[in-house]
Structure formats: structure tokens, C-alpha cells
């Protein structure tokens, strides 16, 4: 069995506790227009330019001005990759899970302060069988695991007993608004969130705060209503403000970045967080 990975590296406390080896798995079922990792969306990866005069590397003229034509590249057999020229590359590599497990085993000395391995994306559950196998093997090996997910996979509950720390994105509370904006509704996410809250303590809910999408006082009140109803001690929330860190990657993937005026002011951010706190939610900062 193999797994497609588009990025890996160590992070401290940002994707779960302690120092962690983080794997970004290829493929996502959502199309968030603010996504910082657009190269991780397509299930089989996408052509990505890394700068320089890459146009001549495509024999079909699908790369112009250093920007690939995403639609043409998606259906092409990609002979450009045979040149092994890093100016033009596929966003991900396909690797045997046994090789990934060996890499993790070699990295154990780095898992300090309660660290371990985190799987994120893209959306890691889109490679469900590979993720299931990795989590099972790491549980048996005694490695602390974390999963960052949009929570939309109907089989997510099957993985909960193999995940030590769950980070679940809650982008919106209204199914139609969620579907209209990112292409998928949020009902399954909210159902999975409620179930996870009933069965585990190490749960962090993340709200990406996007201007014009979910940042009003009324939105904050609805988040409080939904999240405060979670079982037990699970109402720990991190609010992440909109940023444009991934904007240039959209261009390098041949995709249009359509977000406009989505920044949230300092006062707006503080007011939103204050409303969550006043509603009884515990705020986390990583």
C-alpha cells in the first residue's frame, strides 16, 4: 500500500502537542478559496512551477509566463516530468507506507515534549485506507498520533480510537453557506464533531476566521451555540485569522485566487474571541 504526500517536516506545538513530524497527505474534497495549500487539493497531485523559465519544459505550450494551465495539465500524461527539472514538478510523491513508517521510527528521538506524528492535508481522510494503516501501525508502536481534518469523512469515527489528538476544523455552522463557499456541506462535520466530543478529551476545534464568511457578531453567537453544546470538556477552540500565505502558490498551480477583502482587523479578531470566551468556550493559541 502507498500514500501520496506533498509536504513533510517538523513543527513544534502547532499541529498537536510537542515536537511533531507532520505529513501533508495529497487530496481534498473541499475547495476553500483561501486555502494555504492549493497544491494539495487534487487527488493525484498537480503540476507546480518553482520559478525560472519553465515554459520550455512543456512540449504542448501549457506553461506560459511560468504559470501552468491547470485544466490541460490535469488530463496530460505529463512528459515534462521526465526531464527531472525542478522548475516544473508534480506536487506530491507516492511512497510505500512501510517506508514512511521506517522514517517515523528513525525520527523518534525528535518527538520530545509529548510529540509524535501528525497527519494533515489537503484532507488526510481522502486517503482513508492508507491513513487507517498508518495510524494502526503507529498506535501499535506506541507513537503519539494527531490528525488535523475537516471532519467531513463519514468513516472518520472508525479512526477515533487510533488518534491521540484530534484537530477538527469548523468553518461554519450553516450547511448551505458552507456548501456554497467550499463545495461541501458541514452537516457531516458537525455530526462527527459531536461524536468525537463524546468519546475523547484531546480535541481542539479550529475556526478559520474569514472576513465576509464567518466573522460577524452573529456568527460568533452561532459558533458559541453549536460548540458549547458539545459533550464534557471538549469546548477548546482556536481561532485562526485569514492570511494570504498561500496566494502565490495558487498562481504557481495555474489556479485563480478569488478571495478579496477577507482580512479581519485586530479589533474584529479580539471581539470575535471575546464573544467565544463570554459564551463559555476555552480559547487555545498555538
Q: How does the SSE layout of this entry go?
A:
Layout: E1 2-12, E2 19-25, E3 47-49, E4 63-64, E5 67-68, H1 70-75, E6 88-90, E7 93-96, H2 97-106, E8 116-120, H3 128-140, E9 145-149, E10 165-169, H4 175-182, H5 187-199, E11 203-209, H6 217-228, E12 236-241, H7 247-252, H8 266-278, E13 282-283
Parallel strand pairs: 2-8, 8-9, 9-10, 10-11, 11-12, 12-13
Antiparallel strand pairs: 1-2, 1-7, 3-6, 4-5
Helix pairs in contact: 6-8
Give the SSE string: EEEEEHEEHEHEEHHEHEHHE
Structural class: alpha/beta
Taking Cα atoms only, what radius of gyration do you get, to the nearest Å?
A: 20 Å
The order of strands across the largest sheet is: 7-1-2-8-9-10-11-12-13
Cα end-to-end separation: 34 Å
Superfamily (CATH H level) name of the largest domain: Aldolase class I
Provide the low-confidence segments as ranges: none
Round the mean pLDDT to the nearest integer and report it: 92
What is the number of E strands? 13
Q: Percent range for helical residues?
A: 25-40%
Amino acid at each position: 500500500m502507498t500514500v501520496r504526500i506533498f509536504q513533510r517536516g517538523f513543527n513544534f506545538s502547532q499541529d498537536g502537542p510537542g515536537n511533531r513530524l507532520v505529513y501533508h497527505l495529497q487530496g481534498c474534497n473541499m475547495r476553500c478559496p483561501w486555502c494555504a495549500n492549493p497544491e494539495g487539493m487534487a487527488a493525484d497531485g498537480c503540476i507546480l512551477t518553482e520559478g525560472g523559465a519553465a515554459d520550455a519544459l512543456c512540449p504542448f505550450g501549457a506553461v506560459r509566463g511560468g504559470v501552468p494551465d491547470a485544466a490541460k495539465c490535469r488530463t496530460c500524461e505529463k512528459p515534462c516530468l521526465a526531464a527531472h527539472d525542478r522548475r516544473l514538478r508534480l506536487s506530491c510523491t507516492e511512497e510505500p507506507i512501510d517506508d514512511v513508517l521506517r522514517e517515523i521510527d528513525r525520527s523518534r528521538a525528535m518527538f520530545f515534549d509529548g510529540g509524535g506524528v501528525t497527519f494533515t492535508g489537503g484532507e488526510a481522510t481522502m486517503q482513508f485506507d492508507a491513513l487507517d494503516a498508518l495510524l494502526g501501525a503507529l498506535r501499535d508502536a506506541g507513537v503519539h498520533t494527531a490528525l488535523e481534518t475537516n471532519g467531513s469523512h463519514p468513516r472518520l469515527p472508525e479512526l477515533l480510537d487510533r488518534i491521540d489528538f484530534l484537530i477538527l476544523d469548523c468553518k461554519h455552522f450553516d450547511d448551505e453557506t458552507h456548501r456554497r463557499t467550499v463545495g461541501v456541506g458541514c452537516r457531516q462535520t458537525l455530526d462527527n464533531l459531536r461524536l468525537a466530543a463524546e468519546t475523547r478529551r484531546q480535541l481542539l476545534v479550529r475556526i478559520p476566521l474569514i472576513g465576509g464568511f464567518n466573522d460577524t457578531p452573529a456568527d460568533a453567537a452561532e459558533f458559541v451555540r453549536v460548540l458549547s453544546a458539545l459533550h464534557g470538556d471538549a469546548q477548546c477552540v482556536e481561532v485562526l485569522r485569514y492570511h494570504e500565505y498561500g496566494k502565490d502558490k495558487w498562481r504557481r498551480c495555474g489556479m485563480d485566487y478569488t478571495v478579496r477583502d477577507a482580512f479581519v482587523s485586530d479589533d474584529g479578531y479580539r471581539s470575535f474571541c471575546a464573544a467565544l470566551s463570554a459564551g463559555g468556550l476555552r480559547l487555545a493559541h498555538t
